[in-house]
Structure formats: structure tokens, C-alpha cells
UniProtKB/TrEMBL annotation:
Pfam families (UniProt xref): Tom22
Domain of life: Eukaryota
UniProt name for this protein: Mitochondrial import translocase, subunit Tom22
Topological relation to the membrane, as annotated: Single-pass membrane protein
A biological process term (GO) from this entry: intracellular protein transport
Species of the source: Basidiobolus meristosporus CBS 931.73
Annotated GO CC locations: mitochondrial outer membrane
Residues forming coiled coils: none
Biased composition (Low complexity): 113-126
Region (Disordered): 113-145
Amino acid sequence: MGKIEELPIDHVEEVSDSEYSDFESDSDYEDIVEESLLERLQALKEVIPEKQRKAISSFASSIYNAGWTATTFVGKSAWVLTTSALLIVLPLALEIEKEQALLQFENEARMQQQSQQQMLSGQPGQTLPGQMPYGGLVPPGFQPQ
């Protein structure tokens, strides 16, 4: 059995708190060769059973495929909606603009005709023969009401 021996106090070395460490010394880390991420993942191959690896692989593959399918669907839907809107809305907008330009032209022509009538007659409110009051035109062959 071992023998216990008491040491005198002058043989005890005092160690400061800064010398204590929860980590191993730096010299221990110098021996470790740095591994790449790929090497670490390959090392996990030995730790994780093949059944679990296949399950993880199929899960990741299904997530990837679902994302690819969703992205493809969203892209194609956006293309269909955009082209449909352009084919339907663009001609409609052009026709509305054309109609507004025609109405503006008719209003300007009516105002010019009214100003010419006032200049010719000299009195506002009188109409020339063949025209209706308030600037309305009567087509040939129709009687004013």
C-alpha cells in the first residue's frame, strides 16, 4: 500500500490564476492536422449508419425537388400572366387612348365651329341653317328636330 508523506510548506509552489486553464495547451493542438469540411463529412460516414444516411439523402433530395418544382411553376405562371396581360391590356389601353384622342378632336372641331358661327352671325346663340342649337350637326338628309 502507498505511503503518505507530508511536505513542508516551503516546498509547495504557488500557482497564479492566470496559469490555470480549462483548455489543453497549445502544443497539443499543433499535432492535429487541419481537416477540410469534405474530409470531416467523409469521416461522418463511419459514424452515421447507412440506413440513416439514405433517409437523410432522400429527404434532402425531396426538398430540393420540391423547391425546383415550385420555382419552375412560379416562373411559368409569371410568364403566362405577364404575356396574357400584355396581349389583353395593351391593345385595350391603346384603343382607350385612341378613343380619347378622337373625342378631344371632336370637341375641338365643335368649339371651332361654334366660334366660326358666332363670328359669322355676330350674335351668340343663333344657328346657321342645317345646324342644331348647341353645336349639334345634322347629317344630310335628316331634318333638325
